[in-house]
Amino acid sequence: MKKQGCEIEAIGINYTIYTQKRETPFNIFRRNQHKKCLSGVQELHEVKELEKGNDPKAIRHVLKDVNCRAKPGEILAIVGPSGAGKSSFLEILAGKIEPESGSIYVNQKPVDKARFKKISGYVTQKDTLFPLLTVQETLSFSAKLRLKLPAKELSSRVKCLIQELGLDHVAGSRIGDDRIRGISGGERRRVSIGVELIHDPGVLILDEPTSGLDSTSALQIIDMLKTMAVTHGRTIILSIHQPCFRIMKLFNSILLLANGTILHHGTIEQLSLRLMLMGLQLPLHVNILEFAIESIDTIQKKSHTLLPQSTLMIKNSGKFTLQQLFQESKLIDEEPISMSIHNDFPSGFANSRLQEIVILTIRFWKIIYRTKELFGCKTLQMLVSGIVLGSVFYNLEDNLVGAQARVGLFAFILTYLLSSTTEALPIFLQEREILMKETSCGSYRVSSYAIANSLVYLPFLLILALLFSTPLYWMVGLNKQFMAFMHFLLLIWLILYTANSVVVCCSALVPNFIIGNSLVCAMMGSCALFSGYFVSKNEIPNYWIVMHYVSLFKYPFEGFLINEFSGSGKCLQCMFGMCLASGEQVLKEEGYGGEESRRKNLLIMVCFILLYRFISYVILRIRCSQGGFKKILISR
């Protein structure tokens, strides 16, 4: 039995946004990065109050009573000038934002948004992909996360999809971006489409798939979509600004929008007849859609003057073209069964939490390993800095002068390690965009992402800690006990992991790199100031003392001092064979504990790491849950 597919129908869609209300850069509770949807009785009341007020520009009606229908095996193209409401309408159809009013039906039944996202794909205008993964890896990871199939079937599906997308020749090439050389823009757009096709959706929604492409690449994309619509019976809805003549001929129907209202919904032939009845003559060598968009004002003025019989003539015209007769016969020959929205796709997640963590960890590791700035440069940086510091503080003596130098070394290590981690911020910001996209369609749990992101950096940071600590520790001549070296290594590892956790937390909160970098620097600066090195605890004002206890510098700094001087048996000042000042005495005078504080400091550092990781998870979950996939997120 063949599937009839999904017929999408939208009735009375209205959507309104505020145009003058400014939002803070840290507002994570908005539904969209640049739009605020008004829904419900309260919001509708607010709109009416604003309309009655003295500031009519405070709101904007993006969509006004929009109706449309998209059929299986066909392409519905939404066209119109910039600001017509095309992208907003697509986001409403895809379930990304809520309309103020209106209904959406799938096969004449009210849409279940959570399950509809399982049987549909939404391709945004921006290609949100990992630039360091290859085409095959990108599609393979997407398949593993979204499908519950044996490995052989997954591999076969990915291979078939790559062939269908025409990407065989670049399957092993990296995606690339503006900084990293990779595949072409048209090929990258095909990969974005392939990511949304990997689960074989019945509905595919695309926001300007030809944007930024040359005419040849644009035609290839639309021709590929047309083939998919016909061969797989998919319902394809896309927006496009000004298609060329050959692209226009591939559309089964068009929806012409202007200022949020419908000017035409039907075939190209019907649009041509409508313009003719309005007295608009199409110039030679001019695309009819381009002419219609240029004549928007005239069409709006004359639409209400069309006689009822003229409107009926438009609806009945072009109904029996060869292309449409072929589509009609194709659908009649198929057994008329509805696509089961409730049974064809699982309502939950394709993988268990453990499987998701494993898949995401492998993907993260590939990205880290291939990021030269993060892996190669950071590895070299830690090794060189360890050697340089060791040469500067080479072979310190065991006296008061050497002790002061050691304390200065520990303070510099903390400042250096905790302040040189912002290079990973752009990577985390990029991951966040992809996370929100993938979780919005139910690929995996946010908690799985948070755990995988936490685990993948542990071995990498341990390697960095080893490269930094080994030359530094023995060149400086710190505590020569092996267990003291292991404790020093553990402290360096935890310091790096704490810095990594802070950057992850900030990247979940901030909107861009500039604000994130400023926030990280401000946090590290305040932590260093109140660590107890620059200003002793006793000299910190009472109203700032809480900053001393929440400082990320305080506990590793104390850990360094305890590891170096406690139980080492070092005499820092000796006179006539008598020890006047030992390491333990110095610690007590400065108010630091002895061996009993060693484990306490480690425990507090671990708690800081867990706290920042948990905060980042909460922020990401709020962002993703407000992206629209709420029903599945509740199960977490």
Automatic annotation (TrEMBL):
PROSITE patterns listed in its UniProt record: ABC_TRANSPORTER_1, ABC_TRANSPORTER_2
Keyword Transmembrane helix: yes
Major subcellular site: membrane
Gene3D superfamilies: P-loop containing nucleotide triphosphate hydrolases
UniProt keyword list: ATP-binding, Membrane, Nucleotide-binding, Transmembrane, Transmembrane helix, Transport
Annotated transmembrane regions: 379-396, 408-429, 449-476, 488-510, 516-535, 602-620
InterPro entries for this protein: AAA+_ATPase (IPR003593), ABC2_TM (IPR013525), ABC_transporter-like_ATP-bd (IPR003439), ABC_transporter-like_CS (IPR017871), ABCG_transporters (IPR050352), P-loop_NTPase (IPR027417)
Molecular function GO labels: ABC-type transporter activity; ATP binding; ATP hydrolysis activity
Any one cellular-component term (Gene Ontology): membrane
UniProt domain ABC transporter: residue ranges: 45-284
Subcellular localization: Membrane
Organism domain of life: Eukaryota
Membrane topology of this protein: Multi-pass membrane protein
Protein name: ABC transporter domain-containing protein
